[in-house]
Amino acid sequence: MQTDDRPLAVGGADARWLAFVMQLTYCLLLGSAMIRFLLRHSDENRAPWVIALAVALTALYFLGPRAGRGATPWSPVRLAAWFGGIIALWAPLVLLAPSFGWVAVPLFFTALRTLPPRAAYGLIAVLTAFVIGAQLQLSARFDIDLVVGPMALSASATALFIYMQRQAARQETLITDLVRTRRELAATERREGTLAERQRLAMEIHDTLAQGVSSQQMLLRAAQRLWEADPGKARGHVDTAVSIGEHNLSEARRFVHDLAPTDLAGGGGLAAALYTLAERESGERLSVRVHVDEAGHGPLPELPELVQSALLRIAQGALANVREHAGATTAVLTLTCLDDQVVLDVADDGRGFDAAALPEGPDGMRGHGVPAIRARLKQLGGRLTIESSPGEGTVVSAAVPLERREG
């Protein structure tokens, strides 16, 4: 049972519909009572008073507060004055013509809709008492049904309205929760999208820009050391650094616009891009070779763009780790396409490390490289395998599943 002082209101279209039904009920009950009175008592002295009171009551009733969403609520004082006028007109009308007692039925709902619960319950009790008295006055003898009937009617009407109000409140709560959930979901999706984009940019920067800047730094330092002893060789290092800078600029423009890597833009596919990468990464300290394994599996098929881009970035990241951490002289990129997956192996003859001790996070032994590779493969449903031991080099194997080809 509601215990606060707010009206037991049903909002929106339901309120307007209920108000219309109650107004129609009022007109039917008042009209039938008036017809009954005029047919039986039109020649009595009280007839003018009954007609005047019925007209005044009807006018005041239809001047009451409107129902529905957007209707301006009345102040408690104004409501009290309005209901006081209703009772002041209806009570003497019932005393003069008891058949008008049933007009209390639409007044029940009006009280429940506009008054605070306690005031509405008290008013309904008063109205019910008047209805019982009117029915007993019309009856030639006492009948218990004339007492129980109006009481049952008022109790049922009140319970029905409270049920409707609670259903409307539950529906409004559900709608509010749904709207809030949708907003929270949209905010979560935006946050996830932001984090995914940050992760993408972090991986792109590590695999391209950071790798290129690292190479430029090494070349420029070498040029600085050789500038006086061997100017020609020093200028060669500077020219190579300039070339890397141009490539980095092109990569930055492309991944900002979410395009394929520069090495894939030539149209030769992943194999051609790997050869270009190997040529660019090869130098005095590191020799990079590429092997495309097509034995027994036919020519390399056209791979999805996302797979090509991811594997090329993985190769770039792996070579960056080789150059910065392995101390290797040779690295081999092996691309193998099976019926249901494509595998890229990056092997080096460097110092190696304990693969079992390699941490998962970005703050581990090899910076962002390995976590970035794992993240790329996770997006494609692939897996990463690292085989290494101290003094025996390292093999990084990235496998990406493909749709099975029909043979």
CATH topology of the domain at 268-407: Heat Shock Protein 90
Mean pLDDT, rounded to whole units?
Answer: 77
Shape estimate = rod-shaped
Secondary structure category:
alpha+beta
Query: How are helices and strands ordered from N to C?
Result: HHHHHHHHEHEEHEE
Give me the count of strands.
5
Give the name of the CATH architecture of the domain at 268-407: 2-Layer Sandwich
Strand content: 5-15%
Distance between the termini: 73 Å
Percent range for helical residues? Answer: 55-70%
Question: Could you give a short account of the major beta sheet?
Answer: 5 strands, mixed
Number of helices: 10
Instruction: Output the CATH class name of the domain at 268-407.
Output: Alpha Beta
CATH superfamily of the domain at 268-407: Histidine kinase-like ATPase, C-terminal domain
Integer-rounded radius of gyration = 44 Å
- Adjacency order of strands in the biggest sheet: 1-2-3-5-4
Give the low-pLDDT segments. Answer: 6-10, 361-367
Keywords: 4Fe-4S, Cytoplasm, Iron, Iron-sulfur, Kinase, Membrane, Metal-binding, Transferase, Transmembrane, Transmembrane helix, Two-component regulatory system
GO cellular component, one term: cytoplasm
Protein name: Oxygen sensor histidine kinase NreB
Enzyme class: transferase
